[in-house]
Structure formats: structure tokens, C-alpha cells
């Protein structure tokens, strides 16, 4: 049984992608579930926060946090921010001294969500070796369907980067699906 006060029915129009380098205090974000696993030499910590997520990628050389949420991090943090709004697709590619990162999101109308969303839920509930998965259900309340956040991750097929998928359902509105790929930047002489 989930506490209904932990879920707020929001619009996918309010979603922001924030990439934060360095430390991030996740305590204010009400973490409902979390899991940490090593994928391709990167410590990946996935967290469900409300109907959103924070995924932290950490090596001995640096840390990068991906926040997909209707809130943004404090303005004093070193971050990249993108409001997803009502656009159907976004692609972001970033690189710093430690990580090479790409993010793709697709907004799928609610009426078309059943097949891809159900597939992700099934895959998250039986994660592959070396990966993780969660299909987190929120209270249905007066909504037409159970709102869910799905996150799963595993090594890429060629084993060179961590591959993370997420899906966030907004019953009656849309499902926002995303894929992130992250690898460490090879230093000279390594």
C-alpha cells in the first residue's frame, strides 16, 4: 500500500531534464525507491522520486546526476536544464572530462501507450544479469489508470556503456519514455 500523499498528478508538460555535476542532496526529493548497481565501471544509483526519477552516475573521477522531474534543482548547483514541455521528442548529448552522455525522450499519447509501456514493465520486473529494474505503482485515486514510474538499466550489448530506460505515465495524458546512455571518457594513456 502506498501513501497517496506521496503522489501528485502533474502534467508531462512540466517535466524538466536537469544534469547536475558534483554533489546533489537527494533528501528533499522524497526518494521512494532506490537501487545501486555497477554497470560498465560506473556506479549507477536509480531513484524513484514522486512520479519522476534521479539517476546518479559515479566513478572515482566524478559524478553526474540525471533528474527528470517537474521540479528543478537549486539554482546554485552546476547544472544543465531543459524543459521538455509538450514536444514529442528531445535529444541531448553532453560530454565533460569524465562522462560521455546522451538522452532521448519520446512523449507518447496516452491512447498509444499500452504496448511499449507494458513491455517495459515486464522487462523491469525481470531485470537481466548485471542490471536492475523497477515498476513503481502509485495510488490510482480518481485516475483512469494506475500511474507508474518504470526504470531499468543494464550494460549495452557491446558492453561499453550503461544503458538506462525509463517510462513515466500520466494517465489520460501521455507516457514519457526516455533512454540514457553513459560511458566514461577514456583519458590519454589509458
Question: What are the defining features of this structure?
Answer:
190 residues, mainly beta, 6-stranded antiparallel sheet, 51% strand, globular, disordered N terminus
Describe the structure.
The N and C termini lie far apart (49 Å). The protein is 6% helix and 51% strand. It has 190 residues and is mainly beta. The protein is globular and about 50 Å long. Strand 11 (162-170) and strand 12 form a beta hairpin. It has one helix at 114-125, and strands spanning 16-21, 31-39, 42-49, 52-59, 62-69, 79-83, 89-95, 99-109, 132-137, 148-155, 162-170, 174-184. It has one domain. The chain has a six-stranded antiparallel beta sheet, with no helix packed on it. The protein has a six-stranded antiparallel beta sheet with strand order 7-8-12-11-10-9, with helices on one face. It has one helix and twelve strands, in the order ββββββββαββββ.
How is the secondary structure organized here?
Layout: E1 16-21, E2 31-39, E3 42-49, E4 52-59, E5 62-69, E6 79-83, E7 89-95, E8 99-109, H1 114-125, E9 132-137, E10 148-155, E11 162-170, E12 174-184
Antiparallel strand pairs: 1-5, 1-6, 2-3, 3-4, 4-5, 7-8, 8-12, 9-10, 10-11, 11-12
Amino acid at each position: 500500500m502506498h501513501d497517496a500523499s506521496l503522489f501528485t498528478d502533474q502534467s508531462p508538460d512540466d517535466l524538466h531534464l536537469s544534469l547536475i555535476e558534483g554533489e546533489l542532496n537527494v533528501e528533499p526529493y522524497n526518494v521512494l525507491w532506490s537501487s545501486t548497481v555497477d554497470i560498465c565501471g560506473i556506479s549507477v544509483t536509480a531513484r524513484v522520486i514522486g512520479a519522476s526519477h534521479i539517476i546518479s552516475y559515479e566513478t572515482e573521477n566524478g559524478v553526474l546526476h540525471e533528474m527528470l522531474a517537474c521540479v528543478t534543482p537549486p539554482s546554485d548547483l552546476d547544472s544543465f536544464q531543459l524543459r521538455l514541455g509538450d514536444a514529442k521528442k528531445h535529444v541531448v548529448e553532453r560530454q565533460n572530462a569524465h562522462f560521455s552522455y546522451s538522452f532521448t525522450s519520446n512523449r507518447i499519447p496516452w491512447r498509444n501507450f499500452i504496448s511499449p509501456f507494458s513491455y517495459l514493465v515486464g522487462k523491469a520486473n525481470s531485470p537481466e544479469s548485471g542490471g536492475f529494474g523497477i515498476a513503481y505503482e502509485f495510488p490510482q485515486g480518481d485516475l483512469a489508470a494506475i500511474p507508474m514510474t518504470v526504470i531499468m538499466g543494464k550494460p549495452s550489448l557491446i558492453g561499453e556503456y550503461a544503458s538506462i530506460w525509463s517510462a513515466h505515465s500520466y494517465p489520460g495524458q501521455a507516457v514519457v519514455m526516455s533512454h540514457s546512455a553513459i560511458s566514461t571518457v577514456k583519458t590519454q594513456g589509458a
